[in-house]
Amino acid sequence: MSTNNVLFDVPGPKARARYGVYSALTLLAGLAGLAVLYLGFNRTLGEGAPSLFSAQAWAPNPDGQWTQAKWAPFLDPATWTDYVIPGLQNTLTAALFAAVLALVFGLVFGIGRLSEHAWIRIPAGAVVEFFRGIPLLMLIFFTMALPIAINQLLPVFGMPPMTPGTFQVSALAAVVTGLTLYNGSVLAEVFRAGINAVPKGQSEAAYSIGMNRTKTMWLILIPQAVSSMMPAIVAQLVVLLKDSALGYIVAFPELLRSFTLIATRYSNVIPAAIICAVIYIIINVALSRVAIMLERRNSRRGRPAGVTAEPGDGPVPAVSVAEPGPSAGGVSKEP
């Protein structure tokens, strides 16, 4: 049996015919869905609308979302300097701070869950599971409401409430805190799984040469775990960047909120949504390419002898090469 057919059987004539019918139906359903979206946002669909087979139904309706006037605001530099670029800067700022803090949070609590001491392992596991189980939007709301909660608890302990304005949480701090706690808890599990995936022989070899558990963790296990789990870490950071769009709920002026203001001002919801989606796609595809590059770099590890080894690769076996021609004494000499 050919190796190409082990996991996949070549379809017969009837199966190919079925696949062709399924593909055609899927294509028609997709085209129908796009047509409904176009006509719906063009306001030429429904009762009182022109016939679907007329040119009037498919021509851009002045009251719809597809006219040139709806796209014109994005040709104005003021739209980009006043709305898009500031919103993009705020999104990247929140994502950058949250990414750094989430990595630190995940590394600390991921290692804490692997501790031999129960007084460290159990609280670390409780924190990770708690923040993993709470929706991100609720974490953002709870952070914004923290001053109100503190003011309500102070009288319980016999303390006077704080004066207004003494302690406030900004929208940026609320978004960064929510992203850090939620994504950091997910990254903690990623780090824990990566450390557990390192072969036990690595730690046993470290113990045999006199390393303690702390040195083994930081010098042997963590570098290998981070290297192997880097694609998963970058993928979670992509999720973190997309989740920063929830900041518009607490009036954080991020990218999605900026496009919401544009859509409200110019009544061009669909063009604004399309441009916003394109920007998010470009950023996320760039980050995904970084993950793919790191995955390919890791896949090149452990190459055979004769290939230049990268740092961290295993030892390359020596190859005996005989010199051409006999040496003195009639015996071939090897280096």
List keywords for this structure.
disordered C terminus; 335 residues; MetI-like fold; 2 domains; mainly alpha
Written overview of the protein:
The protein has helices spanning 13-41, 55-58, 68-71, 77-112, 118-133, 136-144, 146-153, 171-197, 200-208, 213-243, 255-266, 269-299. The chain has two domains: 22-58, no CATH class; 70-297, MetI-like fold (Orthogonal Bundle), CATH 1.10.3720. Mean pLDDT is 83; it is low at 302-335. It has twelve helices and no strands. The longest helix is centred in the first third of the chain and has 36 residues, at 77-112. Helices cover 64% and strands 0% of the residues. This is Amino acid ABC transporter membrane protein 2, PAAT family.
Give the CATH topology of the largest domain.
MetI-like fold
> How many DSSP H or I helices?
12
Task: Describe the oligomeric state of these chains in a short phrase.
Answer: single chain
Computed over alpha carbons, the radius of gyration is: 30 Å
